[in-house]
Design a protein that fits this description.
Number of helices: 5
Order of helices and strands: EHEHEHEHEHEE
CATH architecture: Alpha-Beta Barrel
CATH superfamily: Fe-S hydro-lyase, tartrate dehydratase beta-type, catalytic domain
Number of domains: 1
CATH class: Alpha Beta
Helix content: 10-25%
Strand order of the largest sheet: 2-3-4-5-7
Shape: globular
Structural class: alpha/beta
CATH topology: fumarase
Number of strands: 7
Largest sheet: 5 strands, mixed, barrel
Length: 173
C-alpha cells in the first residue's frame, strides 16, 4: 500500500493511478457546500484565504459532535458532486487533492487533469471508524456553519482510494 503526505506535490500526484489504495498522513481540511461557496466568494473578492491552497487536500466532510475523550466525532465523506461547481476555481489556485464519495462531473474531471490534481474516495458508512485516523482537529474558518465549518485536521494513515488520477482516469468509468 502506498503512503503519501501533505502538502501534495506533483511527484506524489504523478505516482498515483486510479484504483490505487493508499494511506495519507499530514494536514487536510474539511469543507462542504457552504464553506466552498464562501471560499469562492473570498477568491472573487481577492480576500485572504483561511487556508493555504497550494498542495492542499480538502475532505468533503461535516463531522458530528465530538464525544468526550475523542479528537473528533464521526467523520465520513459526503457526496462530492455537490462541490463540482466550486472546485475548478480552487484547483486553479493550487488545491491538489479532494476526498469524498461518489463520481464527479466531466467538467470536474477535465479540471483535475488541467490542474494536475487528484480525487480520492474513502470508505462511506464508516464515519465512526474514520475518526481513529484523526490526531487533531481545529476549527479555522466559518464557525457559524457548525459542522460545515472548515476544520484543520492532522491525520495519520487515513485510508484512501484514488478515484480520479491526474490524467483523468476514473474508477467510475
Amino acid at each position: 500500500m502506498k503512503r503519501i503526505t501533505t502538502p501534495l506535490d506533483s511527484k506524489q500526484i504523478k505516482s498515483l493511478k486510479a484504483g490505487d489504495e493508499l494511506l495519507l498522513s499530514g494536514v487536510i481540511y474539511t469543507a462542504r457546500d457552504q464553506a466552498h461557496k464562501r471560499l469562492i466568494e473570498a477568491l472573487a473578492k481577492h480576500k485572504k484565504m483561511p487556508l493555504e491552497l497550494a498542495g492542499a487536500v480538502i475532505y468533503y466532510c461535516g463531522p458530528t459532535q465530538t464525544p468526550k475523550g475523542k479528537v473528533i466525532g464521526a467523520c465520513g465523506p459526503t457526496t462530492s458532486s455537490r462541490m463540482d461547481e466550486f472546485t475548478p476555481g480552487l484547483l486553479a489556485k493550487g488545491l491538489k487533492g479532494m476526498i469524498g464519495k461518489g463520481s464527479r462531473s466531466q467538467a470536474l474531471k477535465a479540471a483535475i487533469k488541467k490542474y494536475q490534481g487528484v480525487y480520492f474516495v474513502t470508505y462511506a458508512g464508516c464515519a465512526a471508524l474514520l475518526n481513529q485516523f484523526v490526531k487533531s482537529a481545529k476549527t479555522i474558518a466559518y464557525p457559524d456553519l457548525g459542522p460545515e465549518a472548515i476544520l484543520k485536521l492532522e491525520v495519520e494513515n487515513f485510508p484512501l482510494i484514488v478515484a480520479i488520477d491526474f490524467q483523468g482516469e476514473d474508477i467510475y468509468g
